[in-house]
UniProtKB/TrEMBL annotation:
It comes from Fungiacyathus stephanus. It is a multi-pass membrane protein. Keywords: Membrane, Mitochondrion, Transmembrane, Transmembrane helix. It catalyses: a ubiquinone + NADH + 5 H(+)(in) = a ubiquinol + NAD(+) + 4 H(+)(out). This is NADH:ubiquinone reductase (H(+)-translocating). Its EC number is 7.1.1.2. The keyword Nucleotide-binding does not apply. It is found in: Membrane. The chain crosses the membrane at residues 15-34, 46-79, 99-118, 154-172, 179-200, 212-234, 246-269, 281-301, 333-354. The gene is ND2. The keyword Amino-acid biosynthesis does not apply. Residues 12-293 form the NADH:quinone oxidoreductase/Mrp antiporter transmembrane domain.
Length: 365
């Protein structure tokens, strides 16, 4: 149902179908987040996600009511053409409607300063639900942002806050899912920056960045599920290079790629977004993005250091001895291998990925 809601969201052309597609995926994710019976942490995560999701849905509906009531239609292209043929949502009489819609979508994407629910929900939900929550809805929301354009520079504000919060928020985290929550906030800052610039090249760069981020996130969550960590602590990766050297190398390369270390694919995505920002003279945002990327690279490199250079604690060793050996099944191995293949292929031949992004962005305009 989550995938179906995202597919419907990508193909939606009016605000009613957009709302129904968003709620279809949101309610399905709420059930998945709170499905771990007997766990107070999972119930708390589900309640937080439900309450804040209902708040954002109310803001979204109110914004749609303002826009549709003013223009007399529900189709997004018709509303954009009615307000102004040359620029989206630039009329003074309707900034509140577009602003409410964009804020509601930023809540759904956990973009700073509307990210407060993400670390707790990511940590409390089962790992499979966290993976779905971190990966699937983002692609659908990207298409909606491109369709409605920027509203009173709110995307630029979200970009700046997300870059700062994503870089600083994860520095003191000890749990991997909370770290990935803050990491996602920072990466959404890069994606929103490309949408805010608004040119064809910048949106293509954002879509390329989004696609690469999704592939790398799938690989990370698949490895976490394959390892079967007990408390999802970062220190549970210690000694992994001696126990499972191939899996340790895959995890290290994926985290370094997410950090944007050249010549890995994460560097390609960030370079394209930064280049599009410089072309459109966003120099201050460029320097902030580079600085935040350097700071964020600290906690990714720290994970690689734990994987290769930190011995297991005695408490972790005893817990691993009491547990039965967790073998990686065929489906997880194939998923990890496919993601690693895409990451490696893009390093040596990025033209195919860039061509796909070009065709996809052409279909959005």
């Amino acid at each position: 149902m989550v995938a179906l809601g995202s597919l419907c969201l990508v193909s939606s052309s009016n605000w009613l179908s957009v709302y129904l597609a968003i709620e279809l995926s949101t309610l399905s994710l709420f059930i998945l987040v709170a499905q771990r019976g007997g766990s107070g942490q999972s119930a708390e995560a589900g309640l937080k996600y439900f309450v804040l999701g209902a708040l954002s849905s109310g803001l979204f509906l109110f914004g749609c009511a303002l826009l549709c009531g003013f223009t007399g239609g529900v189709h997004i292209p018709y509303i954009n053409l009615t307000l102004n043929p040359g620029f989206y949502f630039s009329e003074i009489r309707v900034p509140s409607g577009s602003l409410l819609i964009v804020v509601a979508l930023l809540f759904k994407l956990s973009v700073a300063p509307f990210h407060m629910w993400a670390p707790d929900v990511y940590d409390g939900a089962p790992t499979t639900a966290t993976a779905l929550l971190a990966i699937v809805p983002k692609v659908g929301y990207f298409s909606i942002f491109v369709s409605i354009g920027s509203a009173v520079n709110i995307l630029l504000v979200g970009t700046l806050f997300s870059l700062l919060v994503g870089a600083l928020g994860a520095l003191n985290q000890t749990k991997v899912k909370r770290l990935l929550a803050y990491s996602g906030v920072g990466h959404m800052g890069f994606v929103l920056w490309g949408i805010e610039v608004g040119s064809f090249e910048s949106i293509q760069a954002s879509l390329t960045y989004m696609g690469l981020y999704v592939i790398m996130s799938i690989c990370v969550f698949a490895i976490i599920l394959a390892l079967g960590t007990v408390r999802n602590l970062i220190v549970e990766f210690s000694g992994l290079s001696r126990r499972l050297p191939v899996l340790a190398l895959t995890l290290a390369l994926t985290f370094l790629s997410i950090a944007g270390v050249p010549p890995l694919v994460g560097f390609l995505g960030k370079w394209l977004v930064l280049l599009s920002g410089v072309v459109d003279q966003y120099y201050l945002v460029f320097f902030l993005a580079v600085l935040c990327s350097v700071v964020a690279g600290v906690y990714y490199v720290r994970i690689v250091k734990i994987i290769y250079f930190q011995a297991s604690f005695s408490l972790l060793i005893s817990s691993k001895m009491l547990r039965k050996e967790n073998w990686i099944n065929l489906r997880k191995a194939l998923l990890i291998g496919a993601c690693l293949y895409v990451i490696g292929l893009t390093v040596f031949s990025p033209n195919l990925w860039l061509q796909l992004a070009h065709w996809a962005v052409g279909g959005l305009f």
